[in-house]
DNA sequence: TACAATT
């Protein structure tokens, strides 16, 4: 593997070759964080001073499964490496998606930026740039921002935050299909104190003439996640659960549904009558899973997962998306979730049937999602 | 307990 890299990287069209080689590496959602600069084997001179500013690089957005050896091989193809480090989670050893490379020759560092920055590896486009000197003052300077107006661009967000300090990276998360903003983003400042000031100044504030205030807080660091939560997350990501005791219930729902239709239950579609004028504020929406009716499901147990929502709503018709809202730290369900259904009639039927339904010890409350809680 | 979002 290492030799393959060394050989192929001498040739033009490196991107294509690399993608073939790395194609076997498993794709993984979630980008690498723009990590804080970390000590990278500093070599202290006799005067005790070190200047790595022209040789030490930070590499962001590496594919999740790239190994230390592959990392070293890729960047070692440019020139002699003084040291390099793929940053990994302390507990699990998983790559955090970024690393550092310190070249012997500043010219090679420059060459690495010109050659490898923007290189596409699997689903990622890697970023290669000079690393800032390691310092406590630049740690924990990453902010998570939510409630942004959907129309706000990354540039506009930067303009809003730039009054508090130097921005190192920023990002607005977008719907993968439509490309529309999800109203959530990240801002990494150069200094932690700048991030603190931005929280003081902007958290709970309305940008420009925005209708709603934004939330600004320190971003959670994936490496701070507990090992248990991480394992739970990995398990939930890959496991496909099958219904146990729930199965007979879904069969009953399906039967109810068929009976209702067979006996001509009134199927009122406001769309056909008044063009949705009576439905302002309810859950018709576009989204990653396509347009549909978003349903709010309340009183789920902390252990609830997506499969229960599929099981409950699937029998009523086309379900394009389900989501259990979890606490980011504990991975426990926060008590509610969302279901998107394509057709109004089927969504209405599901709501009418499932609202008040007892699931285990809990009575579900099911309704169309409202855009704002204070609205009726 | 009541309407998300974590690169």
From TrEMBL:
<protein>
    <recommendedName>
        <fullName>ELAV-like protein</fullName>
    </recommendedName>
</protein>
<feature type="signal peptide">
    <location>
        <begin position="1"/>
        <end position="16"/>
    </location>
</feature>
<dbReference type="InterPro" id="IPR006548">
    <property type="entry name" value="ELAD_HU_SF"/>
</dbReference>
<dbReference type="Pfam" id="PF00076">
    <property type="entry name" value="RRM_1"/>
</dbReference>
<keyword id="KW-0732">Signal</keyword>
<feature type="domain" description="RRM">
    <location>
        <begin position="293"/>
        <end position="371"/>
    </location>
</feature>
<dbReference type="InterPro" id="IPR012677">
    <property type="entry name" value="Nucleotide-bd_a/b_plait_sf"/>
</dbReference>
<feature type="domain" description="RRM">
    <location>
        <begin position="141"/>
        <end position="221"/>
    </location>
</feature>
<dbReference type="InterPro" id="IPR034915">
    <property type="entry name" value="HuC_RRM3"/>
</dbReference>
<keyword id="KW-0677">Repeat</keyword>
<dbReference type="InterPro" id="IPR035979">
    <property type="entry name" value="RBD_domain_sf"/>
</dbReference>
<dbReference type="InterPro" id="IPR003954">
    <property type="entry name" value="RRM_euk-type"/>
</dbReference>
<keyword id="KW-0694">RNA-binding</keyword>
<comment type="similarity">
    <text>Belongs to the RRM elav family.</text>
</comment>
<dbReference type="InterPro" id="IPR002343">
    <property type="entry name" value="Hud_Sxl_RNA"/>
</dbReference>
<dbReference type="GO" id="GO:1990904">
    <property type="term" value="C:ribonucleoprotein complex"/>
</dbReference>
<dbReference type="InterPro" id="IPR000504">
    <property type="entry name" value="RRM_dom"/>
</dbReference>
<feature type="domain" description="RRM">
    <location>
        <begin position="55"/>
        <end position="133"/>
    </location>
</feature>
<dbReference type="GO" id="GO:0035925">
    <property type="term" value="F:mRNA 3'-UTR AU-rich region binding"/>
</dbReference>
């Amino acid at each position: 593997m290492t030799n393959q890299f060394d050989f192929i990287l001498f040739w033009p069209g490196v991107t294509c070759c690399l993608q073939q080689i790395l194609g076997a590496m498993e794709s993984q959602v979630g980008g690498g964080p723009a990590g804080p600069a970390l000590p990278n084997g500093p070599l202290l001179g006799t005067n005790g001073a070190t200047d790595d500013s022209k040789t030490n690089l930070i590499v962001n957005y590496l594919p999740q499964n790239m190994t230390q050896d592959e990392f070293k091989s890729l960047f070692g193809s440019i020139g002699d490496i003084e040291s390099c480090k793929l940053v990994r989670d302390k507990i699990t050893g998983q790559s955090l998606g970024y690393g550092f490379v310190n070249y012997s020759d500043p010219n090679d560092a420059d060459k690495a930026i010109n050659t490898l920055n923007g290189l596409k590896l699997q689903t990622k486009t890697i970023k290669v740039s000079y690393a800032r000197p390691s310092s406590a003052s630049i740690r924990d300077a990453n902010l998570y921002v939510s409630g942004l107006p959907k129309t706000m661009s990354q540039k506009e967000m930067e303009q809003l935050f730039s009054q508090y300090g130097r921005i190192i990276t920023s990002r607005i998360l977008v719907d993968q299909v439509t490309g529309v903003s999800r109203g959530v983003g990240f801002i990494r400042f150069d200094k932690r104190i700048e991030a603190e000031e931005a929280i003081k100044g902007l958290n709970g504030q309305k940008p420009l003439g925005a209708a709603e205030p934004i939330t600004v807080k320190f971003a959670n660091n994936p490496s701070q996640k507990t090992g248990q939560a991480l394992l739970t997350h990995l398990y939930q990501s890959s496991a496909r659960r099958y219904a146990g005791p729930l199965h007979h219930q879904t069969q009953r729902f399906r039967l109810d549904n068929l009976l209702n239709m067979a006996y001509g239950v009134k199927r009122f579609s406001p769309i056909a009558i008044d063009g949705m004028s009576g439905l302002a504020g309810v859950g018709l929406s576009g989204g990653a899973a396509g347009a549909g009716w978003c349903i709010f499901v309340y009183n789920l147990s902390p252990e609830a997962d997506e499969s229960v929502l599929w099981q409950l709503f699937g029998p009523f018709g086309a379900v394009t998306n389900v989501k259990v809202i979890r606490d980011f730290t504990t991975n426990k369900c926060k008590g509610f979730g969302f279901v998107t259904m394509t057709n109004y009639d089927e969504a209405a039927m599901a709501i009418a049937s499932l609202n008040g339904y007892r699931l285990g010890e809990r009575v579900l409350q099911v309704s169309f999602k409202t855009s704002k809680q204070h609205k009726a």
